[in-house]
């Protein structure tokens, strides 16, 4: 493994994030679950939960995501959006998180490929998954809140992945030819970028959609997907008003996809 700090630098994170509430954990089941618990207790906007190890993390549709100790970037951010981003616009925060992840990956020296967004919630490098995003919302007596959870594969070697994931997953360490990344620096860059992108989501979502489309791994690809149990096939032709996927079917109809599963490119 690369010779890097074994632990996140909590003091440096706190100093780099003035005005944030930083919660650092050596071990947790899920940073998203911890952020939701804190939200129910009244934790403020921009509370961030970071962990060295996560034992029961999850992705969309309950998919399991476990991270070994001290190797990845595991972070969840509690947002209590104000009037500038009402509940009907909270879906924008998934794209905000994805683009913030791209910004943080762009800042890593020595990456040969630009980060891309596989709609709606994965980040790719060199055509393989490097990060996943899980955005959840709920309501309590203190009002509505959103938890933005992100897991980055940072200092993982190929042998760290199960056999079935090795062809489709990657890490920053792998993409840099065996050079690791300082997780404290990376997560600081990501969280600062997330703050900027959340502001953009409220003030200039048109520009954000354009950024998202330029970064789209699916742009112009023919794909199959499942929406509400219904299989669909078509050409990915853009992003909708709130970041939805626009799928042009063979009958010429452009279908707006707000949520889907099993999105796969059709082989040429």
Present the secondary structure layout.
Elements (H helix, E strand, L loop, with lengths): L9 H7 L4 E8 L2 H10 L6 E12 L5 E4 L5 E7 L12 H15 L9 E3 L3 E4 L2 E13 L2 E10 L19 H4 L7 H21 L1 H10 L7 E6 L2 E10 L5 E4 L5 E4 L3 E5 L3
Parallel strand pairs: 1-2
Antiparallel strand pairs: 2-3, 2-4, 4-8, 5-6, 6-7, 7-8, 9-10, 9-13, 10-11, 11-12
Helix pairs in contact: 1-5, 3-5, 3-6
Q: What is the gist of this entry?
A:
By secondary structure, this protein is α+β, with helices and mostly antiparallel strands.
Q: How does this model look, in words?
A:
- The strands form two sheets. Strands 1, 2, 3, 4, 5, 6, 7 and 8 form an eight-stranded mixed β-sheet that branches. This protein has a five-stranded antiparallel β-sheet with strand order 12-11-10-9-13.
- The chain has six helices and 13 strands.
- Strand 9 and strand 10 form a beta hairpin.
- The chain is 25% helix and 34% strand.
Provide keyphrases for this structure.
268 residues, alpha+beta, eight-stranded mixed beta sheet, 6 helices, 13 strands, globular
Assembly type? single chain
What's the SSE pattern? HEHEEEHEEEEHHHEEEEE
Strand tally is 13
Shape: globular
Terminal residue distance: 38 Å
Strand content: 25-35%
Report the helical percentage: 25-40%
Structural class call reads: alpha+beta
Number of helices: 6
Radius of gyration: 18 Å
> Could you describe the largest sheet, including whether it forms a barrel?
8 strands, mixed
Mean pLDDT: 93
Low-confidence stretches: none
């Amino acid at each position: 493994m690369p010779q890097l700090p074994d632990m996140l630098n909590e003091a440096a994170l706190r100093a780099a994030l003035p005005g944030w509430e930083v919660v650092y954990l050596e071990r947790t089941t899920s940073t998203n679950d911890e952020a939701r618990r804190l939200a129910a207790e009244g934790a403020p906007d921009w509370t961030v939960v970071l962990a060295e190890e996560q034992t029961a993390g999850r992705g969309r549709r309950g998919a399991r995501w476990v991270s070994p100790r001290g190797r990845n970037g595991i972070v969840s951010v509690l947002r209590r959006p104000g009037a500038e981003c009402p509940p009907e616009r909270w879906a924008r925060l998934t794209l905000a998180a994805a683009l913030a992840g791209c910004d943080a990956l762009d800042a890593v020296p020595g990456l040969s490929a630009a980060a891309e967004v596989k709609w709606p919630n994965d980040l790719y490098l060199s055509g393989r998954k490097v990060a996943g995003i899980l955005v959840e919302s709920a309501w309590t007596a203190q009002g509505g809140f959103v938890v933005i959870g992100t897991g980055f594969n940072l200092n993982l070697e190929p042998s760290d992945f199960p056999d079935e994931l090795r062809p489709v997953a990657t890490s920053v360490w792998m993409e840099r030819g065996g050079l690791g990344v300082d997780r404290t620096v990376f997560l600081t860059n990501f969280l600062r970028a997330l703050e900027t992108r959340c502001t953009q989501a409220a003030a200039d979502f048109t520009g954000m959609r354009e950024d998202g489309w330029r970064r789209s791994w699916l742009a112009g690809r023919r794909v199959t997907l499942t929406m509400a149990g219904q299989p669909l096939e078509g050409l990915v032709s853009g992003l909708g008003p709130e970041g939805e996927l626009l799928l042009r079917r063979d009958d010429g109809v452009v279908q707006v996809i707000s949520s889907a599963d099993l999105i796969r490119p059709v082989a040429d």
